[in-house]
Write a structure and sequence with these properties.
By secondary structure, the chain is mostly beta strands. The chain is built from no helices and 10 strands. A hairpin with a 5-residue loop joins strand 5 and strand 6. The N and C termini lie far apart (about 40 Å).
Length: about 110
């Protein structure tokens, strides 16, 4: 069983930056696609970005040029670097493991205007 723990969320002003981390225990992530999702208040959870085991990335258009997803297999960790944050980026950010569908518990990101 894989446990995913997100960290790095917080309160930041518009235009600021945060780096989220998702660290796994219980199994190596090096052979798995990993993703970040978010859920704002009163909205459904939405895909933000993903990275394959080979490092191929994809993300929603609204964060392209501002967010970067990366991974460090030696640390069993996936990152989401978020720059030029906007109030609409506010939400709980979740890490997802694609092979078996594990989710973390999320970390809150709040961007003030």
């Amino acid at each position: 069983q894989v446990q995913l723990v997100e960290s790095g969320g917080g309160l930041v002003q518009a235009g600021g930056s945060l780096r989220l981390s998702c660290t796994a225990s219980g199994s190596a992530l090096s052979d798995r696609t990993m993703g970040w999702y978010r859920q704002g208040a009163g909205t459904t959870r939405e895909f933000v970005a993903e990275i394959s085991k080979d490092g191929v990335t994809d993300m929603i258009s609204s964060v392209k040029g501002r967010f970067t997803i990366s991974r460090d297999n030696a640390k069993n960790t996936v990152y989401l670097q978020m720059n030029s944050l906007k109030p609409e980026d506010t939400g709980v950010y979740y890490c997802r493991e694609y092979l078996y569908g594990y989710w973390g518990r999320g970390t809150q990101v709040t961007v003030s205007s």
